[in-house]
Amino acid sequence: MITLGIETSCDETACAVLENADQLRSNIIASSLARHRPFGGIVPEIASRHTLESIVPVYQEALRKAKITQEDLSLVSVTYGPGLIGSLLVGVSFAKALSFSVGVPLIGVNHLHAHIYANFIGTRLPRSPFIGLVVSGGHTSVVFCKDGSFRELATTRDDACGEAFDKVAKMLGLGFPGGPVIEKMAKKGDPTRITFRCGQFKDNFDFSFSGIKTAVLYYIQKCQNIKKEIPDICASFQKAVVSDIVRKTITLAIQKGVTYIAVGGGVSANSYLRKMLSKEGAERGIIVLLPPREHSLDNGAMIARHGYALYKAGKRSDMRLTAVPGLGM
Ligand code: KG4
Ligand code: ZN
User: Fold this and answer.
1) Which of 16, 52, 123, 250 fits a 20 to 30 Å CA distance from 44?
2) Best substitution site from 119, 136, 234 to test ligand 1's pocket, by max atoms within 8 Å of Cβ?
3) pLDDT in tens, 90-120
């Protein structure tokens, strides 16, 4: 069975060809990131225009690389939310037209669920139930995953963690996106130099990254030599955010009595988060699953993998499928 996965929720236009659950035959990604950089963030109109220009060539390249033709497709899987309305509509419209013209089933996929499924390309699903952790530019969620259903246990009350990385990098004049450059700077800094803290709540494990962002801003304002301090600020900020995510996720996993945590989303490319989660998990007998770095960021392979699982569970979409920008967990 050959599944085409289409991902167009933000600045990437991506198509992947997956054979059954385990063989990724191609995974093509075109990004408009360079066009957004001068603006310090994603400009939705630029993203959707780029998606419109790229979707056909990216699709053709995915087929070529997989050495298949359109007639070999068995299923079309596409992200229908959450994300930017313009970009999502391009992907969903393309997927519907393709499914109709080739005469194969269509399946709409939730981008957040797919980030968790990025861990299962080429492998089986872990024993159910397990905990999913989605850490991206738009979301921070700890999810209870059971038999294909998803229940949110904790989420952010304000900024997403990737967004906090992006905003802190912007304040430090490090450019966009912030995650990779903060990670790089942090390697040269002392994470114990400055004490930053993330927001806490009395009765739950929700996240808040808005306060720490302001704390960094105040610190920068009273800095004498900002250039010299950048590595320590990055290391201390990264440590505070990662410790908060690790502590809350592991505590929830213990409370729920699960053995596995499956992590996904752009921030899961962060090596300090990967190291700390794996270490803290191992100390408590919890296995932390992390996708290969290229599957942490947005891609079509995870959409194909999740679409395949939904299809096997008997799910189908029809021509009424449309983009849902505010789709939740
Ligand atoms: O999942 P993703 O590619 O797109 C969304 O669905 O949002 O995540 C993008 C986010 C950005 O905020 C980016 O700064 C962050 O992931 N990110 C990182 C790293 N690489 C990307 N954050 C921390 N460390 C990284 N190495
Ligand atoms: Zn994403």
Assistant:
1) 16
2) 136
3) 999 999 999 999 999 999 999 999 999 999 9
